[in-house]
């Protein structure tokens, strides 16, 4: 079976400290240190650097991390396959998602999934599009939600087109009373998440020639609404982000419509794991039922 040191290595990367790695593996910190020392001795180089924030990988550690991750993932797939043969439907699935998917999609998806597969453990990590794709590529996550285009070489399943809206203070009404135009946006400040500025939000801002000095950045979607409500500027948010957040604001379409395409990204090796395949089916089934006629690709496309 898999050397314990590999599990330790991955736990330290996940938790950033030896102490928290020991907690999740239910061993003592000294056992973690001993395991790392033994692995470093076998490999012939140091794997971690200690600093005030915890620990981080050395350049040599970064070089072997994808290889160790692949070994851990292969072992997990073997255990899942054996469990399925025995009828246990066991295993785990690691999902990466951005904030609006975490809030609006994952709770019902996970609730339904756990009813069908109670023995499969689910771990969720919230991150931005780029971080999710990178983690899926290395195999640290099994699958993730992102937005097109995806630069990493991954299996990509487009799900839906999510329209992007302009959020304004409650007392703002566009000149044509229906959609926001370039003249409405002149001399306005905009509030958005920094992680959104390099994708579809930037396309809308560039179309209306909004300059960088007119931008303000917030930490999450609800904070954007609160700042717009306070009259600090306008916001730009996709439809999914507006489903469960509220404020005393107005929501308008742009006169030229903009969309982001939400997609699933999957590591092709991890897609072979029974638990990952089951979760992909659960996700695509949920999206198909929630948005009838709007799903961009057949759920069986993966």
Automatic annotation (TrEMBL):
Keywords: DNA-binding, Transcription, Transcription regulation. It comes from the Bacteria. CDD domains: PBP2_LTTR_substrate (cd05466). SUPFAM superfamilies: Periplasmic binding protein-like II, Winged helix' DNA-binding domain. The keyword Transcription applies. One of its GO terms (molecular function) is DNA-binding transcription factor activity. GO terms for cellular component: cytosol. The keyword DNA-binding applies. InterPro entries: HTH-type_LysR_regulators (IPR050950), LysR_HTH_N (IPR000847), LysR_subst-bd (IPR005119), WH-like_DNA-bd_sf (IPR036388), WH_DNA-bd_sf (IPR036390). Belongs to the LysR transcriptional regulatory family. This is LysR family transcriptional regulator.
């Amino acid at each position: 079976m898999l050397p314990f040191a590999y599990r330790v290595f991955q736990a330290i990367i996940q938790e950033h400290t030896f102490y928290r790695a020991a907690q999740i593996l239910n061993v003592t910190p000294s056992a973690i240190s001993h395991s790392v020392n033994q692995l470093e001795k076998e490999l012939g180089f140091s794997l971690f650097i200690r600093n005030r924030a915890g620990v981080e990988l050395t350049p040599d550690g970064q070089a072997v991390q994808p290889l160790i991750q692949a070994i851990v993932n292969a072992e997990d797939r073997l255990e899942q396959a054996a469990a399925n043969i025995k009828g246990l439907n066991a295993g785990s699935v690691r999902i990466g998602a951005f904030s609006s998917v975490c809030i609006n999609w994952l709770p019902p998806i996970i609730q339904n999934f756990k009813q069908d597969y109670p023995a499969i453990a689910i771990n969720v990590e919230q991150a931005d599009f780029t971080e999710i794709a990178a983690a899926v590529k290395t195999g640290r996550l099994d699958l993730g939600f992102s937005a097109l285009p995806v630069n990493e070489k991954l299996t990509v399943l487009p799900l839906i087109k999510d329209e992007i809206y302009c959020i304004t203070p409650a007392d703002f009404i566009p000149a044509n009373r229906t959609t926001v135009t370039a003249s409405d946006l002149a001399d306005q400040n905009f509030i958005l998440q920094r992680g959104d500025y390099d994708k579809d939000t930037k396309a809308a801002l560039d179309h209306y020639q909004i300059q960088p000095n007119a931008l303000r950045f917030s930490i999450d979607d609800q904070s954007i609404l609160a700042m717009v409500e306070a009259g600090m500027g306008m916001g730009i948010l996709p439809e999914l982000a507006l489903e469960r957040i509220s404020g005393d604001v107005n929501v308008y379409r742009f006169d030229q419509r903009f969309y982001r395409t939400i997609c699933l990204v999957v590591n092709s090796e991890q897609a072979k794991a029974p638990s990952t395949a089951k979760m992909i089916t659960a996700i695509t089934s949920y999206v198909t039922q929630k948005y009838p006629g709007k799903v961009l690709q057949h759920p069986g496309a993966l």
